[in-house]
Amino acid sequence: MSILLALFCFRVLAQLFQRYIEVPFLPPFDAWQSGTVPYSVLLASQVLIIVFYGWILRCLVLDKMQPSRRQGRIFLIVGLVYFLVMVARLLIGVTGLSEHHWFRSYLPTLFHFVLSGYLIVVGNFHLQATARRP
């Protein structure tokens, strides 16, 4: 989970750097987003995601996460649906609608896999922890 969160933090910082500094070894600013929402809204939502995912990770590390079968199902279902939607986005972009920017935005799709993977891992934690209870 730490690696997934670090990857997402890297993504957010990389785009921020490209916005103001233009680091030559990173993809250009526009490659990091599909353009569906303005960058200010995107950045604010990314910060909220980082805070939320960081809070979850902190709770797990400090053993303050109360395992819940219900929460596990919710995280797992949301994560799997999110993952499958991104797989569909990628496949549609590769096979058919590549002229549409949202479908050919491969870098953002990659990081959506990171975010969905995090949700899937959290869901698995809850389900496995509740399955081990006496």
Secondary structure elements and pairings:
Blueprint: H1 2-20, H2 39-61, H3 69-95, H4 106-131
Averaged pLDDT: 91
Silhouette: globular
Q: What are the low-pLDDT stretches, counting only 5+ consecutive residues below 50? A: none
Radius of gyration: 17 Å
Instruction: Tell me the fraction of residues in β-strands, as a range.
Output: under 5%
Query: What sequence of helices (H) and strands (E) makes up the elements?
Result: HHHH
Number of discrete domains? 1
Number of strands: 0
Characterize the structure shown.
- The protein has 134 residues and is mainly α.
- The chain has one domain (2-131).
- It has 4 helices and no strands.
- Helix 1 (2-20) runs antiparallel to helix 2 (39-61), helix 1 packs antiparallel against helix 4 (106-131) and helix 3 (69-95) packs antiparallel against helix 4 (106-131).
- The radius of gyration is 17 Å and the shape is globular.
Keywords:
single chain; globular; mainly alpha
Q: In summary, what is this structure?
A:
This protein has helices spanning 2-20, 39-61, 69-95, 106-131. The protein has 134 residues and is mostly helical.
